[in-house]
Amino acid sequence: MNVDLNLYYVFYIVAKYGNITRAAEELFVSQPSVTQSIKSLENQIGATLFIRTKKGVNLTEEAKVLFKFVEEGIHYIENGEKKFQELMDLEEGTLKIGASTTVTEHVLLPYLQEFQKRYPKIAISITNHLTSDLIRLLRNGTVDILALNLPTKEAPDLDITPFLEVHDIFAVGKDKKELFKTEKNFQDLTMEEFIFQKRPSNTRAFLDSWLEKEQLGISPKFEVVSFNLVKDMTKIGMGIGYLTKEFVREELSKGELFELKTTPKVPSREIGLVTLKNIYPSFAARAFIDLILEKDKK
Questions:
Q1: Under a CB-based contact definition with an 8 Å cutoff, are residues 20 and 53 in contact?
Q2: Which residues does residue 186 pair with via DSSP β-bridges, in sequence order?
Q3: What are phi and psi of 222, to 5 degrees?
Q4: Which pLDDT belongs to residue 245?
């Protein structure tokens, strides 16, 4: 049976008030329009729904059964609208972000702090993985938005928005700070030991691509999973670390790390937000994106 749902809503209002005039006022339509809607519904379902009395209208016994189901359906819709409005108003919901541990710690934390201040009722879920795993989670709906080291592999279903420029450097700890004093050609560093992140991190992929382009035959002695481990091993003098300057500013200012001046210099790269094209992010994710891009403009 293909019945216009508006007719059921008119039926619900008439049954609720038991009066055609009162129902017409509630629906902001004329009494004849209400009467016509009820007749149309009765014709479509093949049964009488109301009995007219001097005081108004009463449901037939069969219509009382129908009313219970229609009433329940109306309440479900009303509750759904209420929940939807709460999501729109960011009074409820979850922000689901995917990012590397490094990006979460060194880039996202200030944004997350501000987001929590603005929208305290929104729960925040952060998933840390390699880029390839995070993109898979974005595609299957586990996360709504990614914050990634760029460049990342382009794909027709991904929308990538850079928002932060970062600069990779080679750095040493106190024990090797004599290397810091003068600009170094990479031929001067062939006997030194390097510390890189393991493949297939985006940071390592960017480094490998640049080394190949510059025809610099540098191989690391140490390959580790995390950025923080590269930083810590560099600080204690285990080798020359490949680090992101913006993420070690404190260590550089305290004299725990020293940036090497190298020729050629590593080009800058970016951190970007990644969402799926043609799929509108959740209201919480959209608000987080707007917050980041708003702050990026300042």
A1: no
A2: none
A3: -120, 130
A4: 96
